């Protein structure tokens, strides 16, 4: 299998965690005889500084010409005072739209080995395994009209939440198909007691559900969902929601797992898949070798699965992540239990790569007998 992968390290901890994701992808290629090529391009604050734009044309062209894009993080404090369209984040939003992926999958898994790192009591967090399916190209992030008018004293700011049936239906189908491979439950999250967009959302999801009779559908208002996520996370299997609700609920779901640093994501449905950890650029800890690379590595596993169709390689990488956690290795954000060995960002990457090699060896030996 040949894959052309564009690497967008971005800002803050982006470069250091992405390096480890690339390391494990190279290891996977070596172990299984695949040819992956990696090309680095600029995005975010780094791109503004070097090329004057958060998404330079060369970056966009390279992404559109590749099989998959692996991104680190965007955002840097020195751009905080700029309007949204000039900030590092604008580069990511333009890229998402250009690549066309409308379904952002964010698995939030509570691993037994680090259950104690969650502020939730272990008996609540343990065993939670939620797939958040976040609509990524609609809602308040992209709705028009938008903008800020007037001067300081009497400014008015406007954002628009809008959803069409087609936009809701296509992401709903992704959620139902995903549920068929899991525990066959979809919880659709909206604010249908207040918002027309949510009423259309609920009606459309309910209709689409009829095409998937094996899947049980229920609905929650977003405020109630926020509460259920931390009081009873195991009630969820697939959680389907619109763009902004998904942004907020996925950070909350990360708390169940122990750290925002654990979550990877895949954006599918477009021409080119986009893979990025859910955590941000975390400028306060950048460059110190303490960033958690598991989210970036989990994103690499999703890249193997969704852009490469390499299910076995993706499974092996996810198993390698668990192996390293079970062996007790931790970055500081997941070491709250004081158990195990503190490891640097690159040590974690090396350990996952070693575990991959061992998993491949075991498979080999097994097939040899
Ligand atoms: C995320 C991030 C982004 C978002 C930011 C960086 C634009 O928070 O991927 O969750 O809001 O989508
Ligand atoms: Mg977010």
Task: Indicate the proportion of strand residues.
Answer: 15-25%
Query: What is the level-2 CATH architecture name of the largest domain?
Result: 3-Layer(aba) Sandwich
Bound heterogens, unique: 3-isopropylmalic acid, magnesium ion
**What is the global morphology?**
globular
In angstroms, what separates the terminal alpha carbons?
27 Å
CATH class of the largest domain: Alpha Beta
Roughly what percent helix? 40-55%
* Number of domains as seen in the coordinates: 2
Written overview of the protein:
This protein is α/β, with parallel strands linked by helices and 369 residues long. The chain folds into 2 domains: 219 residues, Isopropylmalate Dehydrogenase, CATH 3.40.718.10; 139 residues, Isopropylmalate Dehydrogenase, CATH 3.40.718. The chain is built from 12 helices and 14 strands. The strands form 3 sheets. Strands 2-1-3-12-11-4-5-10-8-9 form a 10-stranded mixed β-sheet, with helices on both faces. The two termini are 27 Å apart. 50% of the residues are buried. The structure holds 3-isopropylmalic acid and magnesium ion. The site of 3-isopropylmalic acid has 7 residues, from helix 4.
Please summarize what this structure is.
This protein is an alpha/beta fold and about 375 residues long.
Keywords:
alpha/beta, Isopropylmalate Dehydrogenase, 10-stranded mixed sheet, 14 strands, 18% strand, binds 3-isopropylmalic acid, binds magnesium ion
What is the element layout, followed by pairings?
Elements: E1 2-10, H1 14-32, E2 35-41, H2 44-51, H3 57-64, E3 68-73, H4 88-99, E4 103-109, H5 122-125, E5 129-135, E6 147-149, E7 156-158, H6 165-180, E8 185-190, H7 196-209, E9 216-221, H8 222-231, E10 238-241, H9 243-257, E11 266-268, E12 273-275, H10 294-306, H11 311-326, E13 329-330, E14 341-342, H12 345-368
Parallel strand pairs: 1-2, 1-3, 3-12, 5-10, 8-9, 8-10, 13-14
Antiparallel strand pairs: 4-5, 4-11, 6-7, 11-12
Helix pairs in contact: 1-10, 1-12, 2-4, 6-7, 8-9, 10-11, 11-12
Bound molecules: 3-isopropylmalic acid and magnesium ion.
Residues 247, 251 line the site of magnesium ion.
